[in-house]
Amino acid sequence: VVETGTPERSVVTTCAYCGVGCSFEAQMRGDELVRMVPYKDGKANRGHSCVKGRFAYGYAEHKDRILSPMIRERIDEPWREVSWDEALAFAADRLKAIQEEKGRRSIGVITSSRCTNEETYLVQKLARAVFRNNNTDTCARVCHSPTGYGLGQTYGTSAGTQDFDSVENADVVLVIGANPTDGHPVFASRLKKRLREGAKLIVVDPRRIDLVRMPHVEAAHHLPLRPGTNVAVVTAMAHVIVTEGLHDQAYITERCDTEAFADYVEFVSDPRHSPEAVEELTGVPAAELRAAARLYATGGNGAIYYGLGVTEHSQGSTTVIGIANLAMLTGNVGKVGAGVNPLRGQNNVQGSCDMGSFPHELPGYRHVKNADVRAIYEEQWGVEIDPEPGLRIPNMFDAALDGSFGGLYCQGEDIVQSDPDTKHVVAALSAMECVIVHDLFLNETSNYAHVFLPGSSFLEKDGTFTNAERRINRVRKVMAPKADYADWEVTQMLANAMGANWTYRHPSEIMAEVAATTPSFAGVTYDLLDEKGSVQWPCNEARPEGTPMMHVDGFVRGKGRFIRTDYVATEEKSGPRFPLLLTTGRILSQYNVGAQTRRTANTVWHDRDVLEIHPHDAENRGIYEGDWVRLSSRAGETTLRATITDRVSPGVVYTTFHHPDTQANVVTTDNSDWATNCPEYKVTAVQVAPSNGP
Ligand code: SF4
Predict the structure, then answer these.
(1) Is residue 545 part of a domain?
(2) Range of the domain at 292
(3) Which residues of 112-129 are buried (b: 16+ CB within 10 A; e: fewer)?
(4) Same domain, 454 and 380
(5) Which of 12, 18, 187, 602 to mutate to test the pocket of ligand 1 (most atoms within 8 A of CB)?
(6) What gap in Å lies between CA 461 and CA 517, rounded to an integer?
(7) Do the Cβ atoms of 449 and 436 come closer than 8 Å?
(8) Which of 17, 57, 587 best tests ligand 1's pocket when mutated (most atoms within 8 Å of CB)?
(9) CA of 47 to the centre of ligand 1 (A)
(10) Which of 508, 524, 559 is the C-terminal boundary of a domain?
(11) Domain with 40 in it: what CATH number?
(12) Mean predicted confidence (pLDDT) in 93-119
């Protein structure tokens, strides 16, 4: 990238970081990338970008890129560079040998929500059609799998209900467990504009995120709940709405399952769910919670935006259900300016779930036990599909440790750094006979791999990403793959080395197969995407232009379904040994484990994770600003610097997980969501003590 001179042509593509899905123009001179600029006609970003996306091209050309396949017999041996043929034959032979010894369910795949739809479709097809099992999972497991469950159960499909434009008609915005100014900056700009115009804001978050108090923006209510008590807060809001008669009875009678509603009213009216009854548990002043509930119910169009502070809990799915209940109670689904909007962390979380990468679902959220759905793919792929759901990521780790699982193809995901309870992950990988890492850089996971397959960056391939508003955006190849092959080609070559005969020549052919087999994508073609710029699914014969807003004429499942939301305390409790609660998040300039952002020009602004600690807790421990501290939990410990701030409440500490030097997930535990196994990253009982440094 030269960042200077006059471009001759431009290629419109999509940012590979967060779920906003900003469009960029890659300005080219010959085959040289001159600069990346936000695309003014991008429907998600309208010419804006954040600092991460603006500099994202940097990692594509970084010197750390691995450009040759590598293998090694054992993980304590040095890597050996080999040809693609040798690496793929080595991997295929090992995987086949494991299956011969342990059975066909003994190997699996993990794909990243950073990969394109087409890549993800092929990876789950590799598991189902070539490995002949359903051992396919995605890193959406560790972020938004509770969204899939909660919205599926209540509304009938796992998808945000609105487009981003909808926020321009919101009157009250409830942000819960999300920090848009850091995590989804371009959407946050649109939200702040609406707030400056007069919309009211309610923030539910243990930490005083920037939106609570910014120039010209101030939340009407901030509910600084104790980590782990989302369900109690959301249920208490519903209690206020129902017991004060603020619910929209006409909407509920027309649109919802009234029997389920009657049961829910009986549940939620119980005085044990009142704000006063849960005040001690949640730490939220009852009067403030009551006022927030009244505002949401009576303030006009009510829009809910939520993030991983909702999902990454032992009751993540229950909170999603509680949020869905709130929106139905107030008639805030199926109209503009309202809705339930999961802010997806990664660029293609929505798409990776749509494409069937979960072990129980084929593409389009159809259960693998459904013989009619299996028949569609059996005819398309010419193989019989295993009717048994496969292993989720944590189950793969457990199976590796009991000796029944021995081979893993991991595409674009550094599970050692990003998954919880690092020691457990490392032990599981160390027990496997064949770990294949397919990535841009050597990473923490590749330390335990036998095969390394070089990946291609978003600039080196064609495909599509689906953003948080279900918008399918084109990813267009700007430069040739530096390691010769795009990721979808590598997956195809691995499948063929295992004995398949795949013959895709371009990702558009993969999308054509998706469209032929998945009703919500039936009308999606690359020609349509080129013509319209992007399209939101469902896009099919009934909705050829796509669908900006869901559930307009009725819920996807028919009648919206209220479900009880019993609060169950997490097992992760503070106590004498670990008296503080740790919660984690992101900062604006870094992205997840930082594999890309640390290798771009914006890196200089933040170069380490730090621990936020309240002045009282710091004083009690003799900790001063900038001190090294030891952060320990029952899972492990790490060392980082402290910053003293009242953004966090007493008893709560906060850090990010961007830097491998910190490895914050050493301390997070193996607790997980009851319905989906999404890890409970957001609540860990910890101790903090002064330290001399790492
Ligand atoms: Fe847009 Fe997100 Fe990329 Fe920033 S990181 S440019 S908000 S898609």
Answers:
(1) no
(2) 145-342
(3) bbbbbbbbbbbbbbbbbb
(4) yes
(5) 18
(6) 24
(7) yes
(8) 17
(9) 11
(10) 508
(11) 2.20.25.90
(12) 95
Last residue of a domain, which of 469, 491, 508? 508
Mean pLDDT of 133-151: 86
Q: For residue 603, what is the domain's CATH number?
A: 2.40.40.20
> What is the count of structural domains for the chain?
4
Written as six digits, the tokens of 550 are: 């869901």
Nearest protein CA to atom 4 of ligand 1, as residue: 50
pLDDT digits (tens, 9 = 90+) for 548-604: 999 999 999 999 999 999 999 998 888 999 999 999 888 777 777 677 777 777 655
**Residue listed under structure tokens 């307009």:** 552
ipTM greater than 0.90? yes
- 272, part of any domain: yes
Residues 378 and 447 occupy one common structural domain: yes
The closest residue, in CA terms, to atom 2 on ligand 1 is 18
What are the tens digits of pLDDT across the range 346-360? 888 889 889 999 999
pTM of the model: 0.89
Residue in this structure with the two tokens 């097809």, named with its chain if needed: 125
Which among 13, 20, 471, 591 is the best mutation to test ligand 1's pocket, defined by most ligand atoms within 8 Å of the CB? 20
* Nearest partner of 118 among 391, 436, 472, judged by Cα: 472
Same domain, 204 and 253: yes
**Residue 649 domain-assigned?**
yes
Which residue carries 């936000």 as its tokens?
38
Report the alpha-carbon distance of residue 183 to residue 621 in Å, rounded: 31
